[in-house]
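Why do we care about 3D structure at all? Because function follows from shape, and shape follows, mostly, from sequence. That is the central idea of this module. The next example makes it concrete: a single protein chain, its amino acid sequence, and then its structure expressed as tokens.
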Amino acid sequence: MCFQIPFAPLQPGGVLAEMKLMATNPRWVDRQAYVQICGAFVGVVDRGVVDELLPLLLMMVDDHVPNVRCELAKVRRCRFSPG
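And the structure:
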């Protein structure tokens, strides 16, 4: 038996809006996921999308949860380092 789950088609603006909500969510795991998703986007999606998400990503530098800051450091080291 196969079930089909109805869902609305993904709208690029809607996905970005949802992601931005993750960046400001009080739950640290959502903020950490935002950092991981942004890191995965670098070099894969349009530069304009990354530029749109970057200001919220930079806010994570001062996050009060060490796990979020640590994830940001990993993304920076792996994605933005030359070579």
